[in-house]
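example protein:
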Amino acid sequence: MISKYDIVEPLRFEEGVLYILDQTQLPEKTVMLKMDSIEDTWDAIKQLKVRGAPAIGVAAGYGLALGVQDIEADTFDSFFLEFMNRKEYLASSRPTAVNLFWALDRMKNRARELREESVPVIKQGLIEEAMKIHEEDIEVCRKIGEYGLQFFKDDMGVLTHCNAGGIATSRYGTALSPIYFAHEKGWNIRVYADETRPLLQGARLTAWELHESGIDVTLITDNMAAMVMSKGWVQAVIVGCDRVAANGDVANKIGTYGVALLAKAHNIPVYVACPTSTIDLQTKTGMDIPIEERDEKEVTEGFGKRTAPVGVKVFNPAFDVTPHELVTAIITEKGVVTAPYEENIKALFE
């Protein structure tokens, strides 16, 4: 059977060049963009050309590794000073997805490990580290799919919000990974994809990749979720996330909190799928997670058409926080975590 991750690569590194799938042009066009500079990578992350926490991390790793190749330095200290400037520049692209900072910190640590080497060796080592991040993400998402499969069965209805599929990672996806694995087993999983306003990631991306893969997917607007649940069509909700706090609170695309509340009202389990790199033990609760606010034009002039009065005030947060009490389980590459979350999340890292 065909899986989405066999159809298009969200990121490709070949002959020393990074290419990314421009997700802003989906579903109409499939375009791979060449990242010629660190500024290109910053823009790709900021403008959501590459999106999804794991994919952002991978892109940032490559962007930094390639973005420091032109640094002229004879000593580690002089190289590292400029390295840190460029690291902080990339870190400024988006504030919520912790994988961005995790990948950049990993690159920083690798540079420090190579401090006794020559600058050319350090530069090559950074490229190799970015490649490792990429390769590891594929394996991580595969394991998430295998662990998550236990919560699914044949002829089941599943609702998802935003996009946490193959194009949001290096391959397989997080929230969609178990669905792809179920599909390969021959199970019929009926997916209801929330449209995910205002940028329509559910409509443009999730519906597209599931449909391309031959998976039964029905697109609904965000305000239809309650009705679909009330009809008994949904037996589980599964989403990805951009940051998990130490207590199990989860930041994900705006609207996730509302979906979780609806699921609780209908006694439907809510599963969050993410790599452990998305878990931030330094962030105690969801209240401490920085929430990105984006341009008001995404709401008032979405996709080029004005749909609101000129001058009206707009609130446009990109994410919301779902309290851990509404989360049934968190599925990671190291296994499934359930309440008590603070204790069990900490155990993942011991």
The mean pLDDT is 95. The chain has two domains: 4-143, 149-348. The first strand starts at residue 11 and ends at 14.
